[in-house]
Amino acid sequence: VHRMLLLVDMDGVLADFTQGVLDLMVVHHPEIAPLPYEAHTKFEVQDNYPEDLRASIRHLCEQPGFFKALKPMVGAIEGMRWLVAAGHDVRICTAPLKQWQHCVAEKYAWVAEHLGEEFVRKMILTRDKSLVSGAILIDDRPNPAEHGAQEPPWLHFLYDQPYNRHVNARRVTWESMMREGMFPTIDMRK
Ligand SMILES: [Mg+2]
139: CA distance to ligand 1 center in Å? Predict the structure, then answer.
């Protein structure tokens, strides 16, 4: 395996954003029956809920403490260490919320806590990932280069989530990457 520059998204790939919302819904909207994780079939988390709740759910994600409290995705911490051990140059590439006031600092704090200070220095925060150099971007967003300023230099590997199953893509999970080797489906011509 040759050394590659890998960009790894944060929400929905490293940090379990959906579960974080589910945990808050129980507290703030006990009147709503909990929606199973697998029933979150829309990318924007609030779009999985009735329209009159959406602004409130969005607001929950903007509160202090939301990002800091997110749990790592299953296999994510181990998977990051495994990519580094395989010799790759691994960077975290994440888009902050438009309401960035708590999100930005807490993303740094999250990485420091779960991956260590050395990874904090490898964080790239941008709302346009098409501008970031790299061989591969691992991201749960169906089309992470949409509305970008340029054709992205990277290949997209879609991190599997219930809300992106309709997309035909090179699909991975931490479990699949570690089980099958790096990126078994890689075809640089695509
Ligand atoms: Mg994401």
Answer: 6
